[in-house]
Each structure stands twice: as structure tokens, then as C-alpha cells.
Design goal:
Elements lengths: L1 H8 L8 H18 L1 H19 L3 H4 L4 H30 L2 H6 L5 H30 L6 H28 L3 H21 L7 H8 L2 H12 L7 H23 L7
Helix pairs in contact: 1-2, 2-7, 3-5, 3-7, 5-7, 5-8, 5-9, 5-11, 7-8, 8-11, 8-12, 9-10, 9-11, 11-12
């Protein structure tokens, strides 16, 4: 990636604008992402399998209630996979390999380096969401209006920011790539589990409230409203504000303590 990224921007700072740097970094990051087909398959596989399996109906599907809720869980599953696991792992790997140290000596502003990574992973999430929605329409007959599709994709962008910020916080606080990988997998289960039980009374009122206002629970509330499973109420606006707050806090932590070199 460095050869592709550093070449177009390895000139004097006065000759290179931030936009030129960002475009060069973005092209390089997209090329790397497309070459890493194994990672793409793994992050896309889980939400797609979820939709296909539950799309066949039966007790496994009925226990989760409304089809739109099941699709929302599949989208959340994909967002967590890409935002928390794939993003943090990719950043930690490049940090350990010295990629960021080499990029830091180029004229590219530091923020464009991370913004490029966020943009690429956001694009991956949107591609995953489109595929999931197409499969859901075919197998579960979850068809939305044009406005609902657009609003759902907007919510997916908001949810992606939440989970990418969590991934940023993890990679900022944990300097070791091996430890980070284990921590990401450890957080994966509660993030998905809280999304699953945020709108259920199975865990009791205190845990239900904790689940509902967790990052995954807030995203589920927004997805349900976007897909028409629930109206856009005051609770939905509160979930949106909570999602923005999660993004600001976790991103702030991840940026504040981020190390450009592995340790």
C-alpha cells in the first residue's frame, strides 16, 4: 500500500493539497481492501448466512419475531464484523508493519490517513447492507419503499460510525496486535448479544434497558424505525443522539491514545 500511497504524495507539503493526499490514500486503501478477498468474504458471510438461514422460516425465525427485526440484526452483525473486527485488525496490522510511520513522513495530513480507512470500511458496510437487503427481499419478502431503503442506508452509515469508533478506541488503547485481536473477538459477542435482547423482556427490566441503550441496541432501534417496524418516536431520536454520543466518545478515545508505531 505504501508504494501506491506514498508515490503520488511524496512531494513537498506546499505542492500537495489535503484533497490530493486523501485521494491517493483512498485509492491505495481500496486496492488493498479488494486484494484482501478472504477478509471480505468473512465479514460478508455472517450477515448473509443469517438472512438466508432465517429466511427459510420455521421456529428459528419465528422466535425472533418481525422479519424487519431479523434483517436489522443481520445488518448490525455485518456492521460489528466490519467496524470492530475488520477495521481494528487492519489498522493494528499496518501499525505493526510500520505502514503508518512511513505515511507520517509524507505531506499527507494525519487525519486523512485515518479518514481514508474509515471511508473504505464504510463503503464495505454499505455494500454489505445492499446485499443483505436484496437477499431479504428475495427470501423473507422484506420489501421497503424507496424512502425506507434510503433511510435504512442512512442509519447504516450512522451505525457504521458507532462501530468504527469502537474499533478505533480498541486499536488506540491496545498497542499489541495479538491482544487487540483477542479483545475484538471478546467484545464481539456482547455487542451482538445486547443488540439481540435490547427489544426483549427475556433478561428482565434492568438488563433490557442496558441492552436497549447499548451501541447495538441504539442501532437496532434506528433500523427498526427506518424499515417501518416502528414509528419514528422520541425514543428513536434519543437512540440517534446516543449513537452520536457513542461515536464522539469512542472516536475521541481512539484518536487521543492512538500510537502510530507498534509497541
Amino acid at each position: 500500500m505504501i508504494n501506491q500511497a506514498a508515490g503520488p504524495i511524496a512531494r513537498s507539503a506546499s505542492d500537495v493539497s489535503w484533497l490530493t493526499s486523501f485521494k491517493a490514500l483512498l485509492r491505495a486503501d481500496i486496492a488493498v481492501q479488494l486484494r484482501n478477498t478472504r477478509s471480505l468474504y468473512l465479514t460478508f458471510a455472517l450477515p448473509i448466512i443469517w438472512v438466508i438461514v432465517l429466511g427459510r422460516g420455521g421456529p428459528r425465525a419465528n422466535v425472533l419475531g418481525d422479519p424487519a427485526f431479523r434483517v436489522g440484526l443481520a445488518l448490525t452483525l455485518g456492521m460489528v464484523s466490519i467496524g470492530v473486527l475488520a477495521y481494528s485488525t487492519a489498522v493494528a496490522r499496518d501499525r505493526d508493519q510500520g505502514v503508518f510511520q512511513r505515511l507520517r513522513v509524507t505531506p499527507a495530513p494525519a487525519w486523512t490517513i485515518m479518514a481514508s480507512r474509515w471511508t473504505v470500511h464504510l463503503g464495505a458496510v454499505l455494500a454489505m447492507a445492499v446485499v443483505v437487503l436484496i437477499i431479504a427481499a428475495a427470501l423473507q419478502e422484506v420489501t421497503l419503499s424507496t424512502q425506507q431503503y434510503v433511510l435504512t442506508l442512512v442509519v447504516v452509515c450512522v451505525g457504521s460510525a458507532v462501530f468504527l469508533s469502537i474499533g478505533q478506541a480498541i486499536v488506540g488503547l491496545i498497542p499489541s496486535g495479538d491482544t487487540l485481536n483477542a479483545a475484538g473477538r471478546f467484545l464481539y459477542i456482547p455487542l451482538i448479544g445486547l443488540s439481540l435482547f435490547g427489544h426483549s423482556s427475556l433478561l428482565g427490566t434492568p438488563l433490557e434497558l442496558a441492552s436497549r441503550w447499548s451501541p447495538g441496541g441504539c442501532v437496532e432501534t434506528l433500523l427498526a424505525a427506518a424499515m417501518g417496524a416502528g414509528g419514528w418516536t422520541g425514543e428513536t431520536w434519543d437512540a440517534l443522539l446516543a449513537g452520536v454520543a457513542y461515536t464522539v466518545v469512542f472516536a475521541g478515545v481512539g484518536i487521543r491514545w492512538f500510537r502510530w508505531a507498534g509497541g
